[in-house]
Amino acid sequence: MTGTERRPGHAARPRLTVVSGPSGVGKSSVLAELRQLGPEVYYSVSVTTRQPRPGEVDGQHYHFVPLEEFKRMVAEGELLEHAEYAGNHYGTPRGPVEQALDQGVPAILEIELQGARQVRSAMPQAQLVMLMPPSWEELVVRLTGRGTEDPAVVARRLEVAKGELAAEEEFDEVVVNSDVRTAARELLTLVVGSHTGA
């Protein structure tokens, strides 16, 4: 970034970029690399009702809140999206994202398909990016290659992955994760470039 992209009088508000993709596609790895490449990007921190795991820091990994507080946030429209997994609730706080965008800082959110659809509904101007595997065969290898999980669990993940990949047309952009660094650079271009267009 040289700063030469900014035209005089052009101060368009950046957009929230939502990154989604099937399990095993490498979202965490790509975003970890993206953090190294683009420190000027705001990374949304989700709120959850589950208990912190060892090593997790409140406000860094998640915002840990009681169920009553979570329900209040939902009722008052403070979450861009929310969902329940294994008896715990998760959601994306709207305030910090809006604040970052208002300050001209691009924001990024990693979330699953249903959450991405909720964000699109709550914030239509958001940019949805799907992270794709190089091929279906490669995704299967990534999910089964670990060899540490029950085959039935892997089978269910593959079934879910098929449905997620089938939703590709709902996304604005697609990034193929053949190489983590390359994918991260491509994603960064989309994230920081999203406020230079209309």
UniProtKB/TrEMBL annotation:
Q: Where found in the cell?
A: Cytoplasm
For this UniProt record, give its keywords in alphabetical order, as a comma-separated list: ATP-binding, Cytoplasm, Kinase, Nucleotide-binding, Transferase
GO MF annotations, alphabetized: GMP kinase activity
Q: Which PROSITE patterns match?
A: GUANYLATE_KINASE_1 (PS00856), GUANYLATE_KINASE_2 (PS50052)
UniProt catalytic activity? GMP + ATP = GDP + ADP
Quote the Pfam families the UniProt record gives. Guanylate_kin
What ranges does the record give for the region Disordered, renumbered to this chain?
1-25
Start and end of every Guanylate kinase-like domain?
A: 14-192
Q: Which SMART domains match?
A: GuKc (SM00072)
The UniProt annotation places ATP binding at G21, P22, S23, G24, V25, G26, K27, S28
Which EC numbers characterise this protein's activity in its record? 2.7.4.8
The EC category is transferase
PANTHER family referenced in this protein's UniProt entry, alphabetically: GUANYLATE KINASE, GUANYLATE KINASE-RELATED
According to its UniProt entry, what is the function of this protein? Answer: Essential for recycling GMP and indirectly, cGMP.
Extract the HAMAP family matched here.
Answer: Guanylate_kinase
**Family per similarity comment:** Belongs to the guanylate kinase family.
**What NCBIfam families does this protein map onto?**
guanyl_kin (TIGR03263)
The protein depicted here goes by the name Guanylate kinase
Organism from which the protein derives = Kutzneria viridogrisea
